[in-house]
Write a structure and sequence with these properties.
four-stranded antiparallel β-sheet; 4 strands; 51% helix
Length: 113
């Protein structure tokens, strides 16, 4: 082929890559998260609205999440005390208070990674 054809086809390929890059970038920033990560039922909405804070405590070497009143268990995690630092273990024995669900998830996520 001639030199002109190589330049023409190279330009077409580069233009296609640029279009694909910007289209992919736009889709990545505009798409909502997958439905599985945003699952909320009426029961979970009621629970999160009624609970204003959470307590994390160690029970049987596992972290347990309580409502603000420290009586009702919300969930038992699979996080063992061995996965926590010595400082966190001492705090979890007496209980750690989390003001909202975001703080709770950040704490749990930092101890599951």
């Amino acid at each position: 082929m001639k030199k002109r054809a190589y330049i023409f086809y190279s330009g077409i390929i580069i233009a296609g890559l640029i279009v694909a890059f910007f289209a992919g970038r736009k889709m990545a920033y505009n798409d909502p998260p997958a439905a599985a990560t945003n699952v909320r039922t009426a029961q979970t909405v009621k629970e999160t609205e009624s609970v204003s804070g959470y307590w994390l405590k160690l029970e049987d070497d596992v972290i347990v999440i309580y409502e603000e009143n420290k009586k009702n268990i919300i969930a038992e995690t699979d996080i063992h005390s061995a996965d926590c630092s010595e400082r966190d273990r001492k705090l979890l024995k007496t209980g750690i208070y989390m003001e909202d669900i975001d703080q709770l998830f950040k704490f749990l996520q930092s101890h599951t990674s």
